[in-house]
Amino acid sequence: MPANILNLAAYEVCKIDSDDHNYHIEAVAAVAPKTCQACDSESLVGFGRREQLIKDIPSHGKRVGIYIDTRRFQCRSCNKTFYEALPEVDAHHLMTSRLVIWIGKQAIKRTFASIAEEVGITEGSVRNIFRDYINQLEQTICFETPKWMGIDEIHLIKPRGVITNIQNNTVVELLPNRNKETIIKYLSSLQGKEEISYVAMDMWAPYRDAILQVLPDAKIVIDKFHVVKMANEAVERMRKSFKAELSPKVRRTLMHDRYTLLRRESDLTDKEALLLSGWANNFPTLALAYRLKEDFFKIYDAKTRNDALALFAAWEISVTHEVRDAFSDLIRAWRNWQPYILNYFDHPVNQPITNAYTESLNNLIRVMNRLGRGYSFEALRAKILFSEGAFKKELQRPKLERRMGYGNPDMPVMFRMASGMDSKERSTEDEVAEVNYGVDISILTRMIEAGEI
Ligand SMILES: [Zn+2]
């Protein structure tokens, strides 16, 4: 008998044929049923056979088809007939169970078309299996509701809402759009939503309205990044307004130097500072716009909301009519969003928002654009939320402190584990609770850059 290349103990392989693209494997179930499926009687007689083609995981670059000679029986007690149930086979899809799982996992990383081609099934079949797989993951993977939540825009084919956990630097959800109804539905469904204390966001009214409605106790904070960005945009607008009156040569230079204009004064090299003073001499209004941009950034050095408010008031007066148009969007945004912009200054959420979190989220947004091609939103969302290896998990195990000999009673009882955790260790510790904070933004970014998802 040929060796069991299938590595499926429940089958005996009878024959193997192959050509350049296919394995054609004939097999039978190793153990015939002993009892009737309907009445459990042991009095069975053979009642014919049929050949069933069951697809399996591709092997050595070839498609695998298992031709199973399936037996039919009749029960002498109740007269019913039945085909033997095929072990390790998904009867609905006519595939091995392991192929179904394999397709689900592959479909997170690859296009449906490439999987369909490799296995030898239709793209529609891949899509159906993928949907089932995702539904199953949705039920088994549950992310902690963030206490400090971020809502941002991310571009995947079109603008989507991305929900993050700021304290843990993770993504917890991707919403198909940025509509108020979508956000309301999502927030309402969250377990423990009463404990969300801060929501950091950009200046997008539907987000604000949804939060005010569903999370009345949460404090809305406008991320610094989104506000100061508008000061840079004002300088850009000023620079562009000169273009028409310049000679092509000067225009090219000004284009070339635009990044210098957007840089913070304290970060300029000597050469850049010289360059900038050259422009300032020739274009005093551009110099003024640069100065106003710098002064606006300094508002964010304020230690309290009152200081920030006073700095803004003084700043606004210094915006003279020559540059007013360029800064009008920023001034309007401040007026419309002032309470939420000022919230940034009086609670502890600002540190994590300004530093690691904003930077890593912006990196993710940058690399995400590459992901978009060839996938549905559903598939993209699954890639981001359910790719293996990027979850940030913690075990909460009260006994650990004593067992590990940590003497310090102030030490947090949580400790960090890699996502591939030891199942034996888990089962011996019955008080262990695993908390999943979502998908680590930095790991996710690295995986996308490496082409792993
Ligand atoms: Zn029977």
Kindly describe this structure.
This protein is α+β, with helices and mostly antiparallel strands and 453 residues long. Among the domains are: 11-138, no CATH class; 224-346; 384-449, no CATH class. Helices cover 46% and strands 22% of the residues. The protein is built from 17 helices and 15 strands. An 8-stranded mixed sheet has the order 12-11-8-9-10-15-13-14, sandwiched between helices. Helix 6 runs antiparallel to helix 10 (284-299). The chain is elongated. It starts with 10 loop residues before the first strand and ends with a helix. Bound molecules: zinc ion.
Topology of helices and strands:
Elements: E1 11-18, E2 22-29, E3 44-59, E4 62-75, E5 81-83, E6 89-90, E7 95-96, H1 97-109, H2 112-119, H3 123-140, E8 148-156, E9 158-165, E10 170-175, H4 180-189, E11 198-201, H5 205-214, E12 219-222, H6 224-242, H7 248-256, H8 258-262, H9 270-282, H10 284-299, H11 305-318, H12 321-342, H13 350-371, H14 377-386, E13 391-396, H15 400-403, E14 414-416, H16 423-428, E15 433-440, H17 441-449
Parallel strand pairs: 2-4, 8-11, 11-12
Antiparallel strand pairs: 1-2, 3-4, 4-5, 6-7, 8-9, 9-10, 10-15, 13-14, 13-15
Helix pairs in contact: 1-3, 2-3, 4-5, 6-10, 6-12, 9-10, 10-11, 10-12, 13-17
The protein binds zinc ion (ZN).
Residues 36, 38-39, 41, 75, 77-78, 80 line the site of zinc ion.
